[in-house]
Amino acid sequence: MRGKRRRPGTTLVLTLALVASLAAAVPATAADLPFRDPSLSVDRRVDDLLGRLTLDEKISLLHQHQPAIPRLGIEAFRTGTEALHGVAWLGEATVFPQAIGLASAWDPELMERVGSAVGDEARGFQQTRPDGWGLNLWAPVVNLLRDPRWGRNEEGYSEDPYLTGALSTAYGTGLTGGDPDHLKTAPTLKHYLANNNEYHRTTTSSDLRPRVAKEYDEAAFGPAIEADAATGVMSSYNLVNGRPNTVNPDLDEVVRSWTDRELLNVTDAFAPGNLPGDQGYFPTLAEGDAAALKAGIDSFTDNGADPGPTVTAVTSALDRGLLAESDVDTAVSHILNVRVRLGEFDPGGGRYGSIDASVIDSPAHRKLARTAAAEGAVLLKNSGTLPLRKAAKDVAVVGPLADTVSTDWYSGTLPYAVTPADGIAAKLGTEVTAAEGVDRIALRNTATGGYVTAGAGASGAALRESAAPSGPPAQAQFDVFDWGSGVVTLRSAANGRYVGYNWSAFVNDQPEPNGWFVQQQFTMEEQPDGTCLLRYAGYETAESWWSNPVYLGPTGPDGTLGLVAKEQAAHYTKDVVRSGVAEAVAAVKGRDAAVVVVGSHPAVNGREAHDRTDMSLAPAQEALVRAVHRANPRTVVIVENSYPTTLGALQKEIPALLWTSHAGQETGNALADLLFGDANPSGRLTQTWYRSESDLPSILDYDIIKSDRTYQYFRGRPLYPFGHGLSYTTFRYGALKKVPGGYEVRVTNTGGRAGDEVVQLYTHQRSSRDKQPLKQLKAFERVSLEPGRTKTVRLRLTPADLAHWDVTRSKWVTETATYDVLAGASATDVRSRATWRVEGETIPPRDLSAATRAENFDDYAGTRLVDESRVRGTAVEASADGAWLKFAGVRPATAAGALTARVAGTAPGTVELRLGSPTGPLAGTVRTEGTGSPYAYETVTADLAGAMPAAGGADVYLVLSKGLRLSTFSLR
Predict the structure, then answer these.
(1) In the prediction, which pLDDT does 549 show?
(2) Locate the CBM6 domain: which residues (predicted)?
(3) Residue-wise DSSP of 749-799
(4) Structure pTM?
(5) What average pLDDT does the chain have?
(6) Which CATH superfamily is domain 377-436+580-687 in?
């Protein structure tokens, strides 16, 4: 790791003062100023510009929307263009597969090409943007996919930090252009740190013991920063160990230690306001913004485009002495450093200034999107059904996702969309039979006899109840899409638009479920009398906006439907006008093949601010698959979603299963390439697919080591393992051989088709002082082989790659041990293995005679990790009486005569020292009467009743009273 660049200090302040005085004395045109001279170093240009700014101008640059400074010829600048899998929210642009889909290709070279294309398109949009430079991109997301129920699972890459680091580095390199001094764009890694739940995301705290922080969460962020493939991080909403990440000192002390280049760190949207808001961490915004700047934040994303509150808060913090001008200079220098490197002040916009809008959705990018969608799909199962024969032109494509392409919150605007049905039809050169397989129903009020009707035009109309004596007309018919967890969406047969709530009425005017508040969701609650109630299930409704669940019913004299309490809800009969299953069965009977496309909707099945409650396929979709398979045994199921799915018994019953993410504009073409063998499936899962949610602990449990999370520690039998993916050909692995710098293995394509194999290298440490992963990915390489050809694959592995975090000495250590080295096609499909005896270190017995941080325990129960102070440090807090910490293998210390502890708490409490177990022999007890505040610490000491064991070491347990906080302790 490289040393952090110095913060502006006394020398720089004097230099800036001199530059400013010279600038005032010597008139110059803006074009002639040194900060615009590309021949000067970046640091000199930044120092020159910083010295020319007034304090008010510098403060103005701390907000996301940085204003123009006309007197220096500086244009406006804005941080934060979304670019997760294409440029988003700026207009039509190439929409690549979701990030989880891109990652599933396990192809860094492809990731870099996609990143480069996205960077080009960001530059293309830049030429026409009126509100300043939008080249600070908020991508990629490197949060680890520790829990597949996370609502934002589609935004991340993998549950593994090594794979995530490799792919984010590749994508970031493409975005930057590969030259850190001349940036195409300036990518920002999201979201630092341990952000993997949406449930109460601004107030929940992710407990990260040091090993988890170092070996897991930080390990995903470090590689791209170290490789100059990212120019900063975004702090996340959540807390880590009781402290909001907006004021996490690691932003400065850890993240900036990974590089010697300046980084531009930003907050997440509205996060600064959370500090005095729902987090209640500081009483005022001025105190919160000051703490954020001191922790390493450079740019505040708050209050939308209005910088006023931020400017006022920072100005107040300066006036109150909470900040010095040097603190502002530090942050502004980081901002200006990135702006200089982007070429903003260079003639013509620098190296990439000539890229124009012609690159947006170019033919080359369309081709790349198709390649990425094909490479990222994973063949989960194939019993000989795939690939389909092109001569078999009589193919039916059915299912709720058969003829649609869905986008997620961070997708760009689709320039066009090739659906699965479109792609298959184009591949075969003929029309295909398509059916969505969803029921079309009419809803009749049992009390009035009126039908729920919608508008016929493109803009629809407010739903109302109308009499229809001769039966339900088209305006009274709705297609019901089941997305699981009881949630359905209703699409009007009258105009093909979805019904949504617009805060006053229900209108059929939406092209698909969408929006921050997804207002197109309903639950049909079956009643004992056979009727149903139509409950409104839009996000942010019953729990947030109303005190009780709300339902639909007539609310006006014209029968217009509105929200009512359950007691006033209308009882409807659900008349099935057309059976979706029957329609699909009729479509597939007698066909050469049936393709069923099922899965999720990105706006419904969990997303930002909403985690998933289950991972199963929707019941109606599962029933559809079974019915189609019974009608046509040549059934292929495509599961199109953003996360692992439990799939139930379908995994056993269906002959062929292919997974894809929501893969963007070329979805259908890519799937057709795969189904008919023009592309050979080569994607691999980047997450464990579990059999049931019961395999998972609480989504708020971040200790992957103790709770046996991810493939590294999971001891159960997964549905599909990490790294799994099949091919239309087969591969043979030779012996795994040690070579300088790593291992090599010969891989042979033993099938009849060309194909790609992802060779994965895992290790396992046989013996250790500490609990070790069952397997851990250390290297991988994607190789392309023609039939019968062999390639020697060399995989880098050094002793340093085997290191883990030693909590006894707070350092990385490679232990002397025997390591299993495993090469294969997944975490469980090991094809070749070797053993490696590594001479490293032996971790010595713990020495508790010096102050030991309580967070460096070996095991625990009934405790939480909390903030030692609002500035830095982690302490341990007991959640209940009898909570304990284990410190294993303590050095024999017969001379130890006292236990000293630094404690805090609002009530009296004790810390007991016990030997061997939490209920073992009591050696001593320290007591506190309470310190009045969880942040007010005192040092307490007690004599030990007996000597510590003289030989063999001992396991020492500290047993704490509820509410007591312990930061450090020692035995002397």
Answers:
(1) 84
(2) 850-972
(3) E-SSS-EEEEEEEEEEESS-SS---S-EEEEEEEEEE-TT-EEEEEEE--G
(4) 0.95
(5) 94
(6) Glycoside hydrolase family 3 C-terminal domain (3.40.50.1700)
